[in-house]
From TrEMBL:
<feature type="transmembrane region" description="Helical">
    <location>
        <begin position="12"/>
        <end position="40"/>
    </location>
</feature>
<protein>
    <submittedName>
        <fullName>DUF2231 domain-containing protein</fullName>
    </submittedName>
</protein>
<feature type="domain" description="DUF2231">
    <location>
        <begin position="22"/>
        <end position="129"/>
    </location>
</feature>
<dbReference type="Pfam" id="PF09990">
    <property type="entry name" value="DUF2231"/>
</dbReference>
<feature type="transmembrane region" description="Helical">
    <location>
        <begin position="86"/>
        <end position="104"/>
    </location>
</feature>
<dbReference type="InterPro" id="IPR019251">
    <property type="entry name" value="DUF2231_TM"/>
</dbReference>
<feature type="transmembrane region" description="Helical">
    <location>
        <begin position="52"/>
        <end position="74"/>
    </location>
</feature>
<keyword id="KW-0812">Transmembrane</keyword>
<keyword id="KW-1133">Transmembrane helix</keyword>
<keyword id="KW-0472">Membrane</keyword>
<feature type="transmembrane region" description="Helical">
    <location>
        <begin position="110"/>
        <end position="130"/>
    </location>
</feature>
Length: 141
């Protein structure tokens, strides 16, 4: 997240975002893999582990988004369509979808399969898109 490291932003906030921002994609990707394993094994422990991974990912994902909200949308003038704003919206959408995914994963066993796996896939793809576009567009700028 090089774009949030401007001198205008607080060093503590930049450090917290840099520390916590990459973690949720790991939790959500692991949950997605566990969902796929559950489809083929039908062992309920995989979907229960995926549920916990989604919850942990959500707790960790919300803190950097709140800091990012303040840094990007209050005070400093990032232009419309800037990579930082696209990253914010894609990550925020991923968080909202993960909240719905957590509710779906609270269902009983195989009821998770079609919707939960689909939402896990969309969340991982959204976070990959957000991070890749931020890295590539900042590299070109």
């Amino acid at each position: 997240m090089t774009s949030l490291r401007s001198p205008k932003n607080s060093a503590l906030a930049v450090g917290i975002v840099a520390l916590l921002d990459p973690l949720p994609i790991g939790f959500f990707a692991a949950a997605w893999i566990f969902d796929i394993i559950y489809i083929y094994s039908t062992e309920i422990a995989w979907t229960q582990a995926a549920s916990w991974l989604i919850v942990f990912g959500l707790f960790i994902a919300i803190i950097p988004r709140i800091i990012n909200l303040i840094q990007v949308w209050v005070g400093t003038g990032y232009p419309q369509g800037s990579p930082v704003k696209v990253h914010f919206w894609a990550s925020a959408l991923a968080i909202v979808l993960s909240i719905f995914n957590a509710f779906i994963h609270s269902r009983d066993a195989f009821a998770v399969v079609p919707a939960g796996v689909t939402l896990s896939t969309v969340v991982v793809l959204l976070l990959l898109f957000a991070n890749l576009q931020l890295a590539l567009r900042e590299r070109l700028a």
